[in-house]
Design goal:
single chain; 32 strands; 6-stranded mixed beta sheet; 5-stranded antiparallel beta sheet; Neuraminidase; mainly beta
């Protein structure tokens, strides 16, 4: 059953959840007053702490990750300067703002970078990807650091949007397969139409002019990419088909040289909203997303990819909509096999609430994929991939959890503190839904993108 972590007069945006090897789960997010952090330990959440104090107007430009040494890394876009910034801290000391490294500026051809993302390899090298959406340097760039952000490499162009004739580029995402094979996605974007296509590339950190291939030529309102082991890559995205959001997935077991047919993930009568993916330690991919059913009910779905097909796992029914909504969602899986899902809920005239749910997963089987190789091409090109077919994935039995409203007290607004948070069963948060159809998520994204681009 979902319970509240905290509440606030400000919206919780860019939710990030990461798990470390010690079994602890960390949650971070942005609000207009700064970047906030909390963690789950001994069955409770610590009260949120402001770890980076700043002023954020557009707070959807923030990503967090962790490494095998227990360090948490952050990258975000500064609204004040237009620069991309980086910081890190030891997860065992992350509640203390003084333990976070002073923000370092990521090298960039110009200010105004957007959609930063990062990944860390087993050796501790940090790779950051970002987009320059407009102007003469527009494109996708990669930088790296081997000393936790003290020094950075020169920005490496991953994709030249000027030469390709694109008006804009955005939604850059990055992951890793093996020690040093990077994989990335980004969106072709029109000033008038918003995102109009999604692209992919695989490369090493010293590849010159990596090759790019098209994934889909449709409006893509969200995408993510995740690598596992030496060869396996997953690509998941949410596209618009006749103004309706749809979630799609494809994967490769040979570092992106070949791809399986794209699969449409959905349940009849549901419109998906904010989504997130995460991998467990055996390589199973987990997808969580919010949805509207029959234009009246809100819920959260959990799907699992076991290496061969998708199955619908236990979900949550959050009740009728009534001018309520979910603004963001993030999931991660702890080292002891618990899946944590954190999401923000809103209701007209009330504070925003940060909610979570967690449960143990069944013990997964080990998954490995055949194939190996690399993708390093000396000349840039765009290769059309075979279009996927819309076919509903194999679905196993679904367990839906219904939430029955009852009278409870709302949680108080949490102030920065180092005292443990007191969990609450706020049913008001449990029945929060959404008043605007998730089909409008594309419009909101496009409007935000246009506003952001005109600020440059």
């Amino acid at each position: 059953m979902p319970t509240a972590i905290t509440s606030s007069e400000y919206e919780f945006q860019s939710l990030q959840t990461v798990a470390d090897d010690a079994g602890e789960v960390h949650a971070l997010w942005m609000q207009p007053t700064g970047i906030y952090y909390t963690y789950w330990s001994d069955g409770q959440w610590l009260l949120p702490t402001a770890i980076i104090k700043s002023t954020f107007n557009d707070t959807d430009q923030f990503v967090a990750t962790t490494d095998q040494a227990g360090l948490i890394y952050l990258v975000w876009t500064s609204n004040e300067t237009g620069e991309i910034l980086f910081s890190w801290a030891n997860s065992s000391k992350a509640t203390d703002a003084k333990e976070w490294a002073s923000p370092r500026v990521i090298p960039s051809p110009q200010v105004g970078g957007q959609s930063p993302d990062l990944v860390v390899n087993a050796s501790g090298s940090v790779f950051v990807i970002y987009s320059i959406p407009i102007n003469e340097d527009r494109g996708v760039y990669l930088v790296s650091s081997a000393d936790r952000g003290e020094t950075w490499s020169k920005p490496m162009p991953i994709f030249d949007a000027v030469s390709a004739g694109w008006e804009m580029v955005n939604q850059s995402r990055v992951s890793l397969v093996g020690e040093d094979h990077l994989v990335a996605t980004w969106a072709d974007t029109s000033l008038n139409k918003g995102p109009i296509g999604l692209f992919f590339s695989g490369f090493s950190a010293n590849t010159e002019k990596p090759e790019a291939s098209i994934i889909v030529s449709k409006p893509v309102i969200w995408n993510d990419i995740s690598g596992f082991g030496e060869n396996t890559i997953h690509r998941v995205w949410q596209e618009l088909d006749k103004d309706q959001p749809e979630i799609w997935h494809t994967y490769s077991n040979d570092q992106g040289q070949t791809w399986e047919q794209s699969v449409y993930i959905s349940s009849i009568g549901e419109i998906p909203g904010p989504s997130d993916i995460t991998l467990d330690r055996s390589g199973q991919l987990h997808l969580t997303y919010t949805y509207i059913r029959d234009e009246a009910y809100l819920g959260i779905k959990h799907w699992i990819w076991n290496g061969e097909n998708w199955s619908s796992d236990q979900g949550i029914d959050l009740g009728e909509i009534e001018q309520r909504g979910i603004g963001a969602i993030a999931s991660t899986i702890s080292s002891n096999g618990e899946i944590f899902t954190v999401f923000s809920l809103s209701q007209e005239g009330a504070d925003y609430e940060l909610m979570f749910t967690h449960r143990y997963l069944e013990t997964p089987s080990e998954i490995s994929g055949p194939g190996s190789g690399s993708q390093t091409n000396p000349e840039p090109s765009i290769i059309e991939e075979n279009a996927g077919q819309k076919s509903t994935p194999t679905v196993e039995a679904t367990a839906e959890v219904e939430i029955t409203p009852s009278a409870t007290q709302n949680p108080e607004v949490a102030q920065p503190s180092n005292q443990p948070a007191q969990p609450t069963d706020s049913i008001m948060g449990l029945v929060l839904g959404i008043g605007l159809a998730f089909a409008l998520v594309a419009v909101a994204f496009i409007v935000r993108l246009l506003i952001a681009s005109r600020k440059q």
